[in-house]
Write a sequence for this structure.
């Protein structure tokens, strides 16, 4: 029996990622962590989901999750980030954030975490090599570039399509949707490129991290290739993620959060 206190984990958002996390926590698959509550914008769907759990938990408003949780996992639309993080950080809680791009426009949340003792945690998500990037950042990073390719359906409803009057229906060749900094991409792809923002925060920052985004009918997996040049290492990294039921998101994203939760209560932590 572990002497470590059990962590109460609340899930904010019950989309493709949130449902996986809640179900696996409910089954006890992460030792030292238990599901304590969920929150979702559709009450009927939430109640149907809660009926599938072995150990039912309450459905609560986003602002109230911190009252029953040590850790809150944000799997919700970026627009409600403040409703989740504000109360949680005021209560000195930890929040695992998947809508990383929204943090760029909310520096006050990071300041709140610094002043109140709460903590914002960003998992590796659909990316690889963040350990190596953060290690390289302890020295000098000269450049970071990421090239992302997704099947056209993975960009459904991305604001940049309407802004540039782009239609992806029936395209037969790769189409470059964006080339520029990670920061400027955050508004055009709020649900697609949190990986790029996570990479930028680990390394050179969102203004100095270069990004290309392609809609590619020739790929069936969400693919990211990273090149980093530093004074300690030259990194070439490629990951091909199998999409979840939501084509914008890879299956590995939920698993990344589970791995982070496991580290929180594990007597042995592997990785930076």
């Amino acid at each position: 029996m572990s002497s470590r206190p059990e962590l109460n984990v609340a899930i904010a958002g019950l989309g493709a990622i949130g449902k996986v996390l809640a179900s696996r926590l409910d089954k006890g698959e992460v030792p030292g962590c238990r599901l304590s509550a969920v929150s979702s914008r559709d009450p009927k769907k939430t109640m149907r989901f809660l009926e599938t759990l072995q150990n039912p938990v309450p459905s609560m408003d986003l602002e109230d999750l911190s009252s029953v949780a040590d850790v809150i996992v944000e799997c919700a639309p970026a627009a409600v980030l403040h409703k989740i993080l504000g109360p949680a950080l005021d209560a000195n809680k930890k929040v695992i954030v998947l809508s990383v791009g929204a943090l760029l426009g909310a520096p006050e949340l990071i300041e709140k975490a610094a002043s109140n003792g709460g903590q914002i945690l960003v998992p590796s998500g659909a990316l690889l090599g963040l350990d190596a990037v953060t290690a390289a950042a302890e020295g000098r990073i000269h450049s970071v570039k990421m090239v992302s390719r997704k099947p056209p359906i993975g960009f459904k409803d991305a604001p940049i399509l309407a802004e540039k009057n782009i239609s992806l229906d029936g395209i037969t060749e790769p189409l470059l949707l964006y080339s520029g900094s990670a920061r400027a991409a955050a508004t055009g792809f709020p649900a697609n490129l949190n990986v790029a923002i996570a990479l930028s925060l680990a390394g050179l920052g969102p203004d100095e991290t270069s990004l290309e985004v392609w809609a590619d009918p020739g790929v069936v997996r969400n693919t990211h290739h990273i090149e980093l040049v530093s004074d300690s290492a030259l990194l070439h990294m490629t990951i091909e993620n199998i999409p979840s039921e939501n084509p914008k998101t890879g299956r590995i994203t939920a698993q990344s959060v589970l791995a982070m939760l496991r580290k929180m209560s594990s007597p042995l932590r592997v990785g930076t």
